[in-house]
What does this fold into?
Amino acid sequence: MRDLYETQRAMRNVRKAAMQRGVIAILDVGTSKIACLVLRFDGPDRLGDNDGVGSLAGQSRFRVIGAATTRSRGVRFGEIDAMQETERAIRTAVQAAQKMAEVRVDHVIACFAGARPRSYGLDGSVEVAENIVTENDIGRVLAACDMPDFGDDRDVLHAQPVNFALDHRSGLGDPRGQMGQTLTTDLHLLTVDATAIRNLFFCIKRCDLELAGIASSAYVSGVSSLVEDEQELGAACIDMGGGSTSLSVFMKKHMIYSDAVRMGGDHVTGDISMGLQVPMQTAERIKTFYGGVVATGMDDREMIEIGGDTGDWERDRRTVSRAELIGIMRPRIEEILEEVRARLDAAGFEHLPSQQIVLTGGGSQIPGLDGLAAKILGQQVRLGRPLRVQGLPQAATGPAFSSSVGLALFAAHPQDEWWDFDVPADTYPARSLKRAVKWFKDNW
It folds into this structure.
């Protein structure tokens, strides 16, 4: 546990050094693609000093000066499966982005999906030392949180205070400088599989790059796809990637819960490949051009040429109706959404005042998906695209780039993670996931 704090601290120092140089790379290591953006920071506030507690502290301006994507290799379920192949793919993406930016990049901030995330809601309480809350008091209250015993094989990825209360006043974003006696906090802790993180560290090191930060793609996709009101009032962001579907729940501009389903767009492609007896590349093309989840009478008549180059003329000239294709795709997409529904129920999502659900990620582009999701998830659902970012090429503005853009925003405004405070050595049994939203129900 302690070595992870040291690693996080070291990464923060690397990020500061990179910000002083003014150039940093963003790396989204996914199952279907690896995306790299090169950011240039400018303006007096280049360092992005954290003036506020938590969200978007320290405004710093940036523009994208290089962008590249390459087909991902060696990644399964969002985790590294074959180190050398992933290393080669990362090098390809980073070199192409550097070439476009005409600048050499040494520092990267990376995000990844999968790694079996688990959320914990912790709370801590202390007496204020001198009746006015200081940074020291905030450090003490965060250190007073009961750490769950999440096991040696897991690491903490994010630790963010989602709420402060001073005496009887709750829902404070930043209590510093306010008068009161008792300070309490609710902390959201996200742990992931330690091996997955270490493999990513090692892989980036092998690419001769220095890691300046790491984030879960569920979190950064929410940052870029949810509008401010949704982040404030409560919303879930569902990022449908190639190998896994990540979900994050936001409240009061903080992530309060995250989870992942080990299924994504590649599984739909696999079903098409098996159902139509075609190679994966052909199945991906058919899915992209003709896929859908709602069949109408027209689709029985619309024939799709499967095509192929096996040399068997009869086999290569096969056609299938679009209705048949939808019949193959729909059950798998329903299965993914049912799993997401179960995870949201476990988080107590129905207790939030607003139950907006935003679908993003490359897998969310299947026509009719929002209607099907609204039926299964039973809430208001919309399709989300990432925020506009200066200098971002048109090709990188779609939902498939939500986590890349979110990571760029995360790099510019780091959520002041609470690594520099001592966490007590005693461990306590983990609380129920519902703790993540309990403080909210009590205080609204």
